Amino acid sequence: MKNQHTQLAATFEVTFGGAPAVNIQAPGRVNLIGEHTDYNDGFVFPAAINFGTWIAASPRDDRMIEVIALDYDNERTRFSLDDIEHVSTATWSNYVRGVCQVLLERFPDLQGANIAVTGNVPQGAGLSSSASFEVALVKMFSTLYELNLTGVEAALLGQKAENVFVGCSCGIMDQLISAMGRQGQAMLLDCRSLEFQHTSLPDTHAIVIINSNVKRGLVDSEYNLRRQQCEEAASIMGVAALRDADLALLARHQSSMSDPVYRRARHIITENQRTIDMYNALRAGNIAEVSTLMAQSHVSMRDDFEITVPPIDYLVEIIDEVIGASGGVRMTGGGFGGCVVALTPKESVAEITTAIDKQYHARTGYEPTLYICSAEQGAFA
Ligand code: GLA
Asked: Which residue, 27, 26, 49, is CA-closest to 143?
């Protein structure tokens, strides 16, 4: 990480001829429970992590944006704030264009910037590398030009950039936790009111993230399809969002729904309850309950929401066998590959590592990557 910082400063100086005016950082996140509930106006329980995006930047006195991306072979992009277009062949640079476009709607007189960016959030792993990039960009403009944005406003801007510009109908969780996370704590977020409460994670336990390294395919289209199915279920039940439904209401409407739509709704309704229960269980120090809730969440994502893949299910099995009721494990993030999160007793980490090393590759052919994480401060916290 230190090397990455030094490299960022050096690249900025060489590229733009001078030291940056600001150094910004925004974290990625792991969601402990509450999956796909955010765009159903429900509850989520994420933590910001010690992996993030770093930006070095300086203001300009014209309306040009120039960016150099260290993690893409120093690829560069340059555009004017008066002429922002989505470039279908571009990858990372559309996030910059998207954030600029949504910021301009609110701050039409915004000036340009010279930007160097790097990060260490594994991409495509379900740990929100894109949200951390968006929030870092918003924080950068906010700092350079004293825009006085709050963390919630910044998160909404980042989400909007992703929704309208990049084309993923994501909810608010990733951007909001990247903005407002707190060190050592997880955040219960009500995605309807955007009110949140932090609670400390037990220092007896570690957050361990295991990347299945399954290449995620069709993520955006499957994601958007889940969102449509949830909206369909809500509309059949006559509620504004699935947040407003319960299992009794769902049972009354089951016959008017296709089976997948019924199961999607069942996942969301039960997951919302589990998320609140998990927050309460952690506050009460009831790890056995945490273990049960995370296990139920995984089964619900596997069978009802159908967003897990066999190597992920297998990772969960391996870890569950080691920790039992002493901790919890489930898939985390949007799904279709990506990562598993475990809240495990610190003394079990070595045993988990050994079990995964022994069994995962042999059975699936994939090489896993393990990250021992801590909960960190958000960019606006
Ligand atoms: C992605 C989205 C989030 C959320 C999760 C699933 O990370 O960006 O808004 O919907 O998937 O919980």
From this structure: 26
